[in-house]
Amino acid sequence: MAMFIGRNRKARVTYGFDEIALVPGNVTINPNEVDITFEIPNSGGSPVGLAIPILASAMDGVVDVQFAGEMGKLGGLAVLNLEGIQTRYEDPEEVLLKVLDADKEHVTALLQKIYQEPVQEDLIAARIEEIKGFGIPAAVSSIPQKAERYGHIAQEAGVDVFVVQSTVSTVRHISTEYRSLDLKQFCRGMRCPVIVGNTVGYEVTLEIMECGVAGVLVGVGPGAACTSRGVLGLGVPQVTATVDCAAARDYHFKKSGKYVPIITDGGMSKGGDVCKALVVWTGRS
Amino acid sequence: MAMFIGRNRKARVTYGFDEIALVPGNVTINPNEVDITFEIPNSGGSPVGLAIPILASAMDGVVDVQFAGEMGKLGGLAVLNLEGIQTRYEDPEEVLLKVLDADKEHVTALLQKIYQEPVQEDLIAARIEEIKGFGIPAAVSSIPQKAERYGHIAQEAGVDVFVVQSTVSTVRHISTEYRSLDLKQFCRGMRCPVIVGNTVGYEVTLEIMECGVAGVLVGVGPGAACTSRGVLGLGVPQVTATVDCAAARDYHFKKSGKYVPIITDGGMSKGGDVCKALVVWTGRS
Amino acid sequence: MAMFIGRNRKARVTYGFDEIALVPGNVTINPNEVDITFEIPNSGGSPVGLAIPILASAMDGVVDVQFAGEMGKLGGLAVLNLEGIQTRYEDPEEVLLKVLDADKEHVTALLQKIYQEPVQEDLIAARIEEIKGFGIPAAVSSIPQKAERYGHIAQEAGVDVFVVQSTVSTVRHISTEYRSLDLKQFCRGMRCPVIVGNTVGYEVTLEIMECGVAGVLVGVGPGAACTSRGVLGLGVPQVTATVDCAAARDYHFKKSGKYVPIITDGGMSKGGDVCKALVVWTGRS
Amino acid sequence: MAMFIGRNRKARVTYGFDEIALVPGNVTINPNEVDITFEIPNSGGSPVGLAIPILASAMDGVVDVQFAGEMGKLGGLAVLNLEGIQTRYEDPEEVLLKVLDADKEHVTALLQKIYQEPVQEDLIAARIEEIKGFGIPAAVSSIPQKAERYGHIAQEAGVDVFVVQSTVSTVRHISTEYRSLDLKQFCRGMRCPVIVGNTVGYEVTLEIMECGVAGVLVGVGPGAACTSRGVLGLGVPQVTATVDCAAARDYHFKKSGKYVPIITDGGMSKGGDVCKALVVWTGRS
């Protein structure tokens, strides 16, 4: 719904998880008889199937090899961030212990120093192999600027899902200073599914889907650890963002016959928010 | 009122007690001259009359035999939960004292152990007789899965009102693993009024009323002790739920000539909320 | 604006002082050149003029003779409650000191005892004379049940304004147990202006004005010391109540040629709220 | 959007920074390639150019000569208040230290005493010269009553921007007691750009622009240090105020061909609010 926020200028009312609730329907169903499996499509092979439709966010503070293993065994998929401690250090455990031991006063300086260490490209392959060692699919992420380089390495190491992630993703980026990632060409060059994000808009999601991606991450600014709203004034509440991108997904499917899933990313803080996210994400009332 | 929460998708604005207030009318009335008596209809006999239109919730922490007696003497009706301490233990008082004495650390484990004890079916009849010993109507509740078994026992013991209660009630439940309660048949088999709940929707309330129930409990998630909203993301604010179900009640009455009362259940935290609930419940502005 | 709060049922959105703000106009004015004098009309004589359009509420904890004197000298009008300590005790100061000295535990019991003492009717005249001794108009209030008796006494003592006040005022009160005050007849029998309240509605305000009152107090439940909202669920936010009653005042004036002021009563907690109240009260945008 | 706040009376829904957020577009841009320079037009000479479009508010507690120098070097413009400590005292530092040393109990009395000291007109020129000594433009402000006198002095001292500021500015001020500032004539008499404020409305902003000003300050009551809302009940949330005044600016430009910038003044408390202010201020969606 659009509201005038001043003379000749409208804004749209948007909604987050705390502002909606689910309403029981006229029919109930035995929970055991509900199918919640999920598939990431793969134009170059068989889709990546998940028993539960939940991904762990590619945050350095969330996912390491061990966590990816546990998550995979439960039926979900954890994405390892290729620009974090796991690929900068042979022994990331040692580094994390240093952070834990640091006092409040020095921890920021320590973190800055830790992330100055360059990514060791041989560790990319090593981590992927370790994750695959659990007998589960391996997923990793990089920023667009590194996608071509790391994507190639990851693919050689047998990665199952590659994620290209930035705060705000578009297909059209204006710059005369550097060359932007050509997403269409990148997807064509990869043999595994490529997931791209994050977006919040209908048009952008459509444009990204038309590049041949296998999934789109939805959400700018809703996460608990996210500073985009305060620092940049930027963000769309997660329910509206998800509904809009679900509409893009459904339109793209109707037009192309290809179902590209969206993955709602962030803004969930209670168990009930996950239920709300799943319902909103289906695109059905 | 429906609002777009995103592209092509509407949600409805709903209201709880804190969001409404009563407005004085153009005519005032001497409080002594207002009739607030209430009747639970009974197709198989005379209705159950109450001096005040208030029920005590079938919660193990609220209603025991003594409480039911006091409430009945005041003109209301307290519902005893048949799956609580009162029917699992000969001497529930002793068990409650143990809970009171337990420290915070062990109380959850203790409670889990207490509720592992099976329901003793002979205690069902005993409790009903104790309540009726106060010279007041006795009301008990069970979950749908136990309704047939406990309903039969309670009826034999002379219960006056039987309540079938679950978080979300529908007439249509899908399951291939077990047989669902046939509500129509159950009501037909009982000689006392059967109250069913909880619901929040117009259609479901109508469907339940068409099964021959004597009343419908309205409310999913609004109670202070209720975790449905946080854990399941499920719930409708109580004013809207009550208004919708009152509309179903009025439509059902118009169509069938049978007045099936609704009982608004939960979400009241102040004295004024009870006044609001009564006004909303009348269905009149 | 009406909103559906559920199936077939609308409620109206209402506004309090915190939800509105004043907007600067296209013309500014030197504050010294604004006229804020106020008149309470008097069909039986000359109007009661005030230099500032503010009354002090007829609350026992607010107005005594001394306060009325100070307020009158500043140009306002304080209303003395005829059912308070001032008319029950020869020396109210002594009683107030006892209240001040009481500890928290016993103060409620003490207050209950203090208000059991009967009103001494000769004190009514005495207090009015004391107030008039300051050379200012005297205003007193009573509940409707006592209005005829106290109104007569107050009039004999030369009172300038008589206020009949109850939580919710209407002209039509239903009772078979007692006789209600006939407001029209009461106003006709008084030689001084009669102010009546409280109301919040357009129709009721009109009906009260048609009885020949000199002013209407507007507000049910907005005051800081008011429990109507929590205990009775009753109340209309003060801005909407004032706007509605101002519309009744303007319509009554158009129809009858008689301007009966409304007095917005309660809900102001900041200096800015007084400014908002004055603007809302004018009935002009 | 207008809402009925009561019978026959509408109010408008307005918005502040916390109620809006920016939404990412379909195209992204390399931040290095965005032009954010800003110009204050000057009918009597060349415009005053700024590298960053940010002014420091003419508050005595914010801007002194040193601060103006630092701000100017960064590309912004700080406005020195001509009725503050800087122009009342040869050595303002000494006065500020006294304030810092004062205990809470005496600080208000001390501040009242400090501001009783008259403005020393020779200090006006001195401060302007000191600021210009940093090789940056100098900006100063006065209230309308002193604008003619101080404007003349400041102009002689070579000031680059002169600001006439009051809580609520209009072109039409009614008074029989004193002569109001004739804004049109004042602007014509000044050789440097004249910025006027504050306003919040479309019509007033237009009327002020038609007097030949070089900019309009927008905002009544939104500042953290501002008491207009609580004490006067006066104020418009800053987003709506800015949008309305931007519409006036655009209409004035269309009609006259002269682009008079508006400067949104107050209500920003987070970094993101500055981004929101810039977007709202552009007048483009």
Report on the structure:
- Chain A has 285 residues and is α/β, with parallel strands linked by helices.
- Chain A is built from eleven helices and 13 strands.
- In chain A, strands 6-7-8-9-11-12-13 form a seven-stranded parallel sheet.
- In chain A, strand 1 (2-6) and strand 2 (9-12) form a beta hairpin.
- The model of chain A has no long low-confidence stretch (mean pLDDT 94).
- Chain A binds chain D through residues 3-11, 14, 168, 170, 172-178, 199-201, 203-204, 207, 220-221, 229-236, and chain D through 1, 13-15, 17, 20-30, 32-33, 202, 239-244, 246-248, 270-276, 279-280, 283, 285.
Give a summary of the structure in a few sentences.
Four copies of one chain form a homotetramer. Chain A is an alpha/beta fold.
Architecture blueprint of SSEs:
The structure is a homotetramer of 285-residue chains.
Chain A: E1 2-6, E2 9-12, E3 27-29, E4 38-40, E5 48-50, E6 55-56, H1 65-74, E7 77-81, H2 85-88, H3 92-101, H4 104-114, H5 121-132, E8 139-142, H6 144-156, E9 161-165, E10 172-174, H7 183-189, E11 194-199, H8 202-209, E12 215-218, H9 228-232, H10 238-256, E13 262-264, H11 271-282
